[in-house]
Each structure stands twice: as C-alpha cells, then as structure tokens.
Amino acid sequence: MQKRSALLKTISSSSLIGIILLIVSINAAAQDSIKTKTEFKPSGKIWGYAFGDYAYKLHADAEKRGNVQYSKLPQDYNSFNFRRIYLGYDYQFSPNVSSQFLLAHESTFEANTNNPDVLTDNNRAVYVKAMNIRFKNVIPRATIIAGQQATPTFSTLSEGIWGYRSIEKTIADMRGISSSTDLGIAISGKIGKNENIGYDLMVGNNNGARVENNNFKKLYTSLYAYFLDKKLVIQGNYEVGRAALSPIQKNISTIKVFAAYKSSATTVGVEAFRQVQTNNSTYLTGIDTAFSDVKPSGISFFLTQQLTKDKLNFFARFDMYNPDSKFNSDNKYLGSYNSNKESFATIGLDFIPYKNVHIMPNLWYDQFHSKMPDATGKLKNDYDLEGRITLYFLFNK
C-alpha cells in the first residue's frame, strides 16, 4: 500500500509539472503569434570563454590544510593550467522562447588527479553545466526556466558584480556553501515599471550537475532591490534542503546577504552568509557517538577600480571564513572535521590589450588559524601564497 501511495504521488507530481510546462508553452506560443513571421527569424550563436594561469607556490602551509584551488601543494610547485573552459550555444526559438546549452571544464583542485575534473587517463573532463528552455512573459516581467541552470545563490547577481570569477569564486562558491548549477524549474522576474525590484524562486535536485540519487529537493529564493539610479543593489537569499533521513535526519539551510555600489569606475561590495547543517558532525562522548550541528559562516569585502578606461583595472578582495561557529574544543570530533578558520585575500591588476582579452598579474593568499587551544607555531597560524599571471579571453560573448 505504501509503495502504491508513493507511486501515485510520483505520478501526480510528474503530471503536475507536465501540465504546468504545457500551459507555459501554449501561453508563450499565443504571445509569439501576435508578431508576424517576417518580424522574427529563429537563430542561435556559439560563444565561449576560458581562463587559466601560470601559478607559482611562493609559500605552503606546513600542515597541508584546506580544500580550495592550491591547497596541499608544496612550496615551489608551479604549473600552467586552465581553471575554466566554457563552450555554449544559445538559441532563440521565438521572441519569448529561448534555450541555453553549456559544456564546461572546471579545475577545482590543482594537481589532484583523483577528482572529477579529469578523466581516468588524466585528460580534462567536460560536463553539461546548462541545458534549459526559457519562457518569457508568461508571467509579466518574468522568465520561467526549466532544466539544468544557474542557481540564484551567487551566479545570477553577486558573481557578475564582483566581476573577477577569473581570479576567484565568490565566498559562498569558494567554500562550497551552495552549487552554481542545479536541475529544476525556476521563475526569475522583476517588479514594477522601473524594474528596481527582482526575485528568483527555484526548486532543484540539490545535486549540482550530477544525476539525481535521492528524493530530496532544494528550495532557492532570492529578493533584491536597486537604489540610487541602480548604482546600489541589496540582495537577500534563503535556501533550504534535506541532505539525509537516515541514520539521522540532516537538513541544510542558508541565509546570504549581498550589497554593492557600482559607479562608472568603482565597485565596492560585501557578501556574507550563515549556514546551518543539522546533525552534520559527530564526536565522542565517552564510548558513545553524538551528533552536532555545523554552522559555517563567512564575510567577503571587495573593491574594483578602473585606472585607465577599457585598458587597466585594479582589484582587491578580503574574506573571513569560519567552517563552524559552533566549534567546541572539548569535543573529540570524528571524520574530516575542519577546526581551522581561514582568511583569504587577493590583489592584482587587469590589463586589457584587446577587447575581451585580459592579462592579470595577481597574488592569491589563504591563511589558516587553528581554533584548538593547545595549537602553537605553524599549526596555530600558517598560509598558502600563490603568485599568478592569469589569462582570460572571451569570444562571441
């Protein structure tokens, strides 16, 4: 009986989604039929970009801590590497219906062949990061998106305003707080004639670009507003999803805020988050094992400044990250529990010799500070430091 009930629920959910998409497509077609065939011709374009570096490890953390780009590499390690390669195709079916397809290679951990960035023969792996269809104006001033798509956590606003994903991910992305892509259905829209208020609502698998492997879903929400002739933007995000039901229930919820002021030459911004991962760590209590919540938090400040119009820019950023603000030094944590606070910084110049070509000398710094009360020396404080020349180029974008 339970199996039959679950089956009926699955069929009902699938039928409901199918009916919604059918109504959306009919409404979009009805709106497009208002325009004559001579006014619009379906078309598409290929586009892409890539960024990579020559990087040299100037100093290495003696304890080999961290799980970001250059963690655990020895001092003096150096390499040429592409950190991202994108190849996309956008197609416009009609004035209100479009599609997006994106293949991506992304290098997450330098010199680590035991990760999904490379194939078994150590060649670069490529995966589908986006494959979606978009229906505009079914809801006034809104777009309905179905398929693999960018999540509203940071990809749709804060990352673009920071403007230097080619240098480093935003803090929430860098620290693995949420995925930049997910498979699901979303509504993205604006409110009011001047469109100074915007919103995003998405339900996804909560499995990134990977195939689904459970029944859990994640809710993404975003609300943002522009002020001062759209120079100032303030955004709030809330996300919630289930991670497990057994052997104990685990849920993850995230609150994130972002604010930035952007003029013609200067951009300053701040981004902060706090996450609650229920029952996500274990520790010993005598001979028994207990579960504890994990509460990561972080804040990021950035500045970009145009020095010479269309030719030279300056950028700088500073982050503070705490993997668990609920850390208790008396607990004997099990597994890969992270007991180190981290401070990240980057600074550099952006030379633009040609349109869509960027050459950026920069420094990349990640400091570790142990929260253990008996930590001393390099265990207490140490850091990774990279010197880099970053190349970033785009085509048809």
Automatic annotation (TrEMBL):
SUPFAM superfamilies: Porins. This is Porin. Gene3D superfamilies: Porin (2.40.160.10). Keywords: Signal. It comes from Hanamia caeni. InterPro entries: Porin_dom_sf. Residues 1-30 form the signal peptide.
